[in-house]
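Hi Y.,

Following your request, here is the sequence exactly as I used it, all 197 residues.
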Amino acid sequence: MTNLAFSPARPSFSPLRPQQRSLGWQAGAVVLGTLFLALSSYIEVPMVPVPVTMQTFAVTLIGALYGWRLGAVTIAAWLVEGAVGFPVLAGGAAGIQHFVGPTGGYLFVFPIIGALVGWLAERGWNGNRVLLAFAAMLLGNVACLALGTAWLAVMIGAEKAITFGFVPFIVGGLLKSALGAATLTALPRGKMNLPKP
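Below is the corresponding structure, written out as C-alpha cells. Let me know if you'd prefer a different format.
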C-alpha cells in the first residue's frame, strides 16, 4: 500500500511544469522569481526587531510552483542580490549587515523553506490537494519562524526572541499559508501545458 500524501513526483505538480522546460526558460524563471520576492519585500509592516512582510508567502509559493531545486536556486539568487546591495530585502533594504543582524536567521532559512515546500509539492502537496498545499505552506512558515527565532535567541535571549520573533507572526503565517494554498488552487491547470523542448 502506498502513502498517497508522499506519492512519487508527478509531472503536473505545478501548472508551470518547470521540470519540462529548457535551461533558458528556467533562467528566466529565476529572474522573475527574484523580482516577485523583491516586490513581496516591499509589502511590510514595520516591527522591531523583525518586520512583517509578504516574503514567506513568496518563498513558499515559489517553492510550490518551481519545485525544490529551482525554487531554492531562485531564493538563493534573491538573497545574493540583497547581500551585494540591490534593494530587494524588507522595505527595500540591502547589504550584508542584514545577514548578521536580527533578521539573518530568517533570511538564511528561506532557501530551505522553498526547497521543503517544493519537495512536498512534487509529492502531491500542491494545488491539486488544497489541504495538503495548505499544510506544506504552513510547515514552511513554522520552520521559518522556529529557525529564525533560534537565531534571534542567540542575540537577544530565548524569551525575548519568542515574544518578538515568533508569537507576533503566528496569525500572519496562518493567513499567508491559506493565501498560498488558495493561489495554487486558483492557478489554471492544463492550459499551460507546453511540449517538452
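The chain has seven helices and two strands.

Thanks again,
Q.
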